[in-house]
Structures are given as structure tokens and as C-alpha cells.
Amino acid sequence: MTKTTPSLDGAYALQTPADNAKLYANWAQTYDSDFAARMAYRLPALVASAFAAGFKGHGPVLDVGAGTGLLGQALAASGIGPVDGIDISSEMLAVAQAKGVYRALMQADLTQPLNLHHAPYHGVVSSGTFTHGHVGPEAIAGLLDIAAPSARFVLSVNKGVFTTKGFDVVLNGLAGQITALETQEEAIYADAPDPAHRGDLALIVRFIKA
After folding, report:
1. DSSP 3-state assignment of 145?
2. pLDDT digits (tens, 9 = 90+) for 166-204
3. Does residue 3 fall inside a structural domain?
4. pLDDT of residue 35 exceeding 90
5. DSSP 89-131
6. Of 25, 56, 100, 209, which sees the most CB atoms within 10 A?
């Protein structure tokens, strides 16, 4: 079996859930140092801040695409809990589990219906999952289904896919199901050494379930 090379460009080129699981299985043990620290990855801290301070969110919270637990750590540092996490990669979740900031971690494919024991959630957050080669806007409806009324949502969406993948259309089409929709543009990396991605941008999307 050919081993998938773990890299940002490799992640952006993924096409299927199976592709995602394979790449992140290979990347789990080095993701925090090889990617997050090296690239000065800002999104987990930005999402946590928007949820805790800007949106006055509270638990229980679901971290969607929890990965190695970077967003869970940022939420815990802000006093938010309990936090559960879901991700397609069991290997990434094993790294997150070792950080001790989650109540529960579950392997799940966001392209399929979610059956989560601790639902409904009062908060739903995500950092780095709605991006190139990963999950599209069709998953948002399923996340609304496992959220309580008035639940706070803070999701990062890579700016490069926001319109091309139809996030804008889907979010605007949820009028009546969500309120207080806001987007804020942010740099994904503080000081990325890779010139190809130094200027990458994301939109921090906030809304409340009606």
C-alpha cells in the first residue's frame, strides 16, 4: 500500500473520507510539531476566543474535526467545558485523548448522519475542517440537528472554498433556522515559513441556532 505523504498540500488535495483517514493516520504523531507549531497555526485559538469571549458560549460543546485536540486545549484554557470531539481519524483522536481536555472523543464521518450520545450540544465549534479537500457545507445541517435551541456555532471556513463550495449559499439558505450570522476574515497562520501558504485566509463564521 502506498503511504500518503502528510503535508498541507497533500491535505488540500484529498478527495474522499478514506483519503482523509489515510493521510491523518500517517500525520497524527507529528501534526502538532510538523504543522501547527511550524506554521504558527492560529485558527484553534481564534475559534476558541470567538466562542468563549465574543459569543459568550458555554458547554457542553462539540469540537467538529477535533484532530489532535488543539481547539479543545484552547477551549479548556478559556474555561469552557465539557467538550466532546469527533474526527474521522482514530489516530488523531488518540493524540487528542492524551491531552486530557475532552469528556468524550468519537470517530465519525461528517458526510454521514451523526448519532452522538451526549447530544444536544449548546455549542458547536470547528477549526480547519471546512477547507480544501475536506468537508463541505452540506455537513452544517447535520450539525444543527445535534445542537440545542440557541446553541452557539463558531466554524472556521477556508476563504478559498467559501464561495466555490457554496458555504455562502447554504448559510444564507438557513434563514429561519439560524440567527446572528456573522463572518470575520482572519489569517490562518501568524508567521508561516511556507511562502505558498503565508497569506492563506479563513472566515470565522458565527451564528446561533434559532
Report:
1. helix
2. 999 999 999 999 999 999 999 999 876 777 678 899 999
3. no
4. no
5. -HHHHHHHHTTT--SEEEE--TTS----TT-SEEEEEEEEEES
6. 209
| Domain span holding position 86 | 8-209
Task: Give a yes or no: residue 2 inside a domain.
Answer: no
In a domain? residue 190: yes
Rounded Cα distance between 127 and 83, Å, is 14
- Laid out side by side, the sheet with 83-87 consists of 104-107, 83-87, 61-64, 121-130, 147-158, 201-209, 178-187
Domain count of the chain?
1
Q: Read off the CATH number of the domain in which 155 is found.
A: 3.40.50.150
**Residue 1 within any structural domain of the chain:** no
Q: Does an H or E element contain 21, and which?
A: helix 17-27
pTM of the entire predicted model: 0.89
User: Cα(95)–Cα(26) distance, rounded to whole angstroms?
Assistant: 12
According to the model, what pLDDT value does residue 60 have?
97
